[in-house]
Amino acid sequence: MSKLPSWFKQEIPDTATLDRAQRLSQSGVRTVCQEALCPNLSFCLRRRSFTFLILGNTCTRNCRFCAVGKSANKTLCLDRGEPARVAKAVKDFGLDYVVITSVTRDDLADGGAEIFARTIESLRQISANIKVEVLIPDFAGRILSLKVVLDARPHLVGHNIETVKRLYKDLRPEADYQLSLDILKKIKEIQPLIATKSSIMLGLGEGEEEVITAMQDLLNSGCDILTLGQYLPPSKSHYPVKEFINIEQFEYYRVIGLGLGFKSVLAGPLIRSSYGAQELYESTIISN
Q1: Cβ neighbours of residue 237 under 8 Å, at least 6 residues apart?
Q2: What is the pTM of this model?
Q3: Which residue among 76, 90, 166, 193 is least crowded, i.e. fewest CB within 10 A of its CB?
Q4: Can you name the residues that pair with 196 across neighbouring β-strands?
């Protein structure tokens, strides 16, 4: 399945978009948009909708769908200057809604929770009006690490299950489906009023019933917002796409998700976990 359907066509980046990409590169910050080869890169740059990547650009896990660099047992450093650089970039670009994510750092005692918290605090020093969404790893189940992030009071916390339970062994051998659900549930136990979000990639060989079961599992864990998008392999060495989900099927899943009880569902071929993040957060808060 090498030929992409027509709905994956993207606009050619304009001058402003290319300028923003260059400014980001020169600012010393990373975005998951660039590191993970997101197909929406030009679209999001044009809208000044960035997802900043902290804790370096090398992950300690080996998920077969992800383009981010892997550690391969290398010793990784911890850059304590990242929070300040992210805050400066946010100020320079005049952002009022910021999404922060990270690689997984199982080599760190706290999984990187302190850097998450310091980044949020650095943004608050710019303006108390900046809204912050974080997309966190599972912290290997460390509740104290999760609490460090929550104590910094982000507006929304996301944690992705990525795929259905059956495919975890092949796709996420070092992750755990139930642990991810437990993390989402624990967020609500610690801060019941905080908005939570998760994401599922489709086209990996999952069945319709498995997708609906994953939706229900997320709801049972207190997840408020769901995004569903098409998996696209970053290279030929990554897990192959099994199927291109058509737009009608994505709409079917969106309707099912809303019917099950999610406060908001965004579904489509190009949807990613932080796609339209500000609009999705605001519509969820307003409607609920």
Answers
A1: none
A2: 0.91
A3: 193
A4: 157
